[in-house]
């Protein structure tokens, strides 16, 4: 991924600008794509990796959280594309205010901390009521 043509997310570090493309933890993979990236290029890289590793990357579980300006995010949600980035119809895209869980933490645009934890707290309260 690092040697690929993918742009990823540009971050400023002490060593200058670097691209952040992926975060791997156990069997979870988080990939950051820019509007200049191709989802199809990512799928090709993942297919090659899966074949080499004799593993399966479950693209059906892929979820997108658009990052950027409100206009950019709305374009991704409404048109499933921005610049070179075109998303297949089977990929879920988080809407404004919709939280997605990554490694136990909640991420999304316009989400509230209270909102994402309300179902969990309600479940705990219900368990206490049964006691």
TrEMBL record:
Superkingdom, natural source: Eukaryota
Name of the protein: Reverse transcriptase domain-containing protein
Native organism: Schizopora paradoxa
């Amino acid at each position: 991924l690092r040697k690929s043509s993918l742009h990823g997310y540009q971050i400023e570090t002490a060593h200058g600008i670097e691209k952040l493309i992926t975060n791997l933890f156990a069997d979870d993979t988080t990939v950051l794509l820019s509007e200049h990236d191709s989802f199809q290029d990512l799928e090709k890289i993942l297919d090659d990796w899966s074949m080499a590793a004799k593993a399966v990357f479950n693209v059906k579980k892929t979820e997108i959280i658009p990052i950027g300006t409100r206009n950019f995010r709305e374009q991704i949600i409404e048109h499933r594309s921005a610049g070179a980035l075109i998303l297949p119809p089977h990929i879920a895209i988080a809407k404004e205010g919709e939280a997605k869980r990554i490694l136990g933490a909640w991420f999304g645009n316009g989400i509230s901390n209270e909102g994402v934890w309300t179902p969990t707290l309600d479940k705990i309260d219900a368990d206490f009521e049964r006691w």
